[in-house]
Amino acid sequence: MNRKRTPKQLRKMWAMLADIAKTHPWAEWLDKDDWKIFFADSSTSNLTVEEMSELLTRMRTWANRNGVKFSDEQGLTWGKTDGRAKQKSGIG
Predict the structure, then answer these.
(1) For the chain, what is the radius of gyration of the CA atoms?
(2) Domain limits at 23?
(3) What are the C-alpha distances in Å from 6 to residues 21, 29, 51, 85?
(4) Is 8 a member of any domain?
(5) 11 vs 25, 28, 57, 85, 92, CA distance in Å?
(6) Is 32 in contact with 18 (CB distance < 8 Å)?
(7) What angle do CA 60, 33, 56 make, to 5 degrees?
(8) Domains in the chain: how many in total?
(9) Measured between alpha carbons, how far is 35 from 16 in angstroms, rounded to an integer?
(10) Is 15 a domain residue?
(11) CA separation (Å) from 63 to 5, 45, 91?
(12) How far is 19 from 73, CA to CA, in rounded Å?
């Protein structure tokens, strides 16, 4: 049985889309919802874990080729509920 995509994968997708929308030269024309259509062209709600993983990989590959830097590459991580970036703690 193929499991449905996880909440963590969904948060990661929206975090990546937000970073792309903020940093790509097309940022003034496209928001994160437009970028979702660009990458997924359909609903992601029925994707399996594997399919969502493939989508995230495609997004990262495209972003790397187009000069997008993700927040998680700058010492940030994404919050569980609100999607805002938080500085990683070096403690613990």
Answers:
(1) 14
(2) 1-62
(3) 23, 30, 11, 19
(4) yes
(5) 23, 23, 14, 11, 24
(6) yes
(7) 20
(8) 1
(9) 10
(10) yes
(11) 22, 22, 31
(12) 11
Contacts of 39 by beta carbon, 8 Å cutoff, 6+ apart:
17, 55, 58, 59, 62
pLDDT digits (tens, 9 = 90+) for 1-40: 689 999 999 999 999 999 999 988 887 899 999 999 999 9
Q: Which one-letter amino acid corresponds to residue 22?
A: K
H helices of 2-87, where? 7-23, 32-40, 49-65
Q: Is this model's pTM higher than 0.90 or not? A: no
Residue 90: inside a domain, yes or no? Answer: no
Considering the domain boundaries, does residue 19 fall inside one? yes
Tokens standing for residue 14: 């929206």
